DNA sequence: CTCCGATTTTACCAAATAGTCAAGAATCCG
DNA sequence: CGGATTCTTGACTATTTGGTAAAATCGGAG
């Protein structure tokens, strides 16, 4: 049979090669949507806002993504892999301190370079993770347990101080994403200092120093 | 003259003693609103949702708070002081490690007992802190700088390892509030374990161990 | 150039939502 | 009790919002 499934459904969710215009406009929409959803979450954002930010009429935007939910899902998928990559990159064969130093640095870099991505996830999780809930319970869970196993081995080999690996991962997420998610608060406290050139290095240095050495004085 | 300013404006924003019914219903509304705003933020929440959760008709709810914004502001004010109290309680005359241990423990307790308050602030800050922006730039900023001064002194007295005090405060906020704000994610990773009796102690132990001692192995 | 599908726009609609109003019900106080 | 006040509700309005329909325009292959 092998029906030639020239399946209807417009340009959406089909297998046709996207035109150049489609590729460009979808990208524009996803960027605009990321900014909007990152600030107000799914329910608090409007299609009009996204259309305005994309400099596109609302019906035109809905030509590329039929429904608000479709945009939201696309933005999340578009960002999820990148966001998780640094954790996946922890090398079981590497030096524990160096691997964690690199992980923390990478996460801080991402918070600085793509804060909207972090805020998007924060909003999604705050709302109860209605869309990425499954992902969290499967792939994220597996990845965390895998890397926790690596850290646990490092501890058992006395290459790290005794520490609960999962809580360590949580703390690294918290500390690094905080700089993206609570940027407004950090700016309120630190002012323009945040935009000075050395700030990111200073932040990385502080976070690394605490996580690696703690704050208890060493004699 | 001394006009008897029996100022109009119903029961709102006036100086009259609230009736018992008013006190009770306002409290019910604030609790319901906290739950709702904590999940979806200001824009993503609806008055109907709040009314439903408060088991009250919408017009009745709006009899107590004329506008959605008024409820939101009231909830924020109602929660702000409590949320900041632990930081204010850090005692410059106390033992540094003990003071910070107590601070972290208190913040973790609040995250566990009043997660909605944490999520409410997270949503507000993610949205750009449109309501509490002023507060952040004044009272919070002052408080942080004051306590940062205390920590800085502790460091200079070698009672703490060298650490940037403001980043230390940020990290403590991040690590503790993470357990409230990202509860769904933590449950996805850890499952029912989160509800077991010892979990809070285990969390506190892990966070304290990392912040106080770091993860670098000590010989 | 010309045609045809791809893209964009104009004009809509229905549902959701914030907020109003006036009348009815409950409560308080003398 | 009885009247004044407080509280509650049903019915309503104006606006916002997600989404649709169809006509107009564009752009690229032949």
UniProtKB/TrEMBL annotation, chains A, B:
Residue intervals annotated as DNA-binding region are 46-65
Listed A to Z, the keywords are: DNA-binding
Record domain HTH tetR-type: where = 23-83
Keyword Magnesium belongs to the record: no
Q: Which GO terms describe its molecular function?
A: DNA-binding transcription factor activity; transcription cis-regulatory region binding
Record bears the keyword DNA-binding: yes
- Entries under Pfam families matching the protein: TetR_C_3, TetR_N
Q: Which GO terms describe its biological process?
A: negative regulation of DNA-templated transcription
Q: Which domain of life does this protein belong to?
A: Bacteria
Q: Which PROSITE patterns match?
A: HTH_TETR_2
Protein name as annotated? TetR family transcriptional regulator
SUPFAM superfamilies assigned to the protein according to its UniProt record, in alphabetical order: Homeodomain-like, Tetracyclin repressor-like, C-terminal domain
């Amino acid at each position: 049979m092998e029906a030639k499934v020239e399946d209807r459904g417009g340009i959406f969710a089909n297998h046709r090669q996207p035109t150049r215009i489609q590729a460009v406009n979808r990208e524009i929409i996803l960027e605009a949507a990321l900014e909007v959803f990152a600030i107000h979450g799914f329910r608090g954002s409007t299609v009009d806002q996204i259309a305005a930010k994309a400099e596109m009429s609302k019906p035109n935007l809905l030509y590329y993504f039929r429904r608000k939910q479709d945009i939201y899902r696309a933005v999340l998928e578009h960002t999820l892999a990148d966001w998780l990559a640094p954790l996946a990159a922890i090398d079981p064969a590497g030096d524990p301190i160096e691997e964690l130093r690199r992980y923390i640095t990478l996460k801080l870099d991402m918070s600085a370079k793509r804060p909207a991505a972090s805020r998007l996830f924060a909003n999604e999780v705050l709302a109860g993770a209605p869309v990425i809930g499954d992902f969290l319970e499967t792939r994220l869970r597996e990845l965390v347990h895998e890397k926790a196993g690596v850290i646990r081995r490092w501890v058992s080999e006395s290459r790290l101080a005794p520490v609960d690996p999962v809580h360590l991962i949580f703390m690294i997420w918290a500390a690094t994403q905080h700089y993206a998610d609570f940027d407004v608060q950090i700016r309120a406290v630190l002012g323009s200092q945040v935009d000075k050139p050395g700030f990111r290095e200073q932040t990385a240095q502080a976070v690394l120093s605490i996580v690696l050495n703690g704050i208890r004085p060493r004699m």
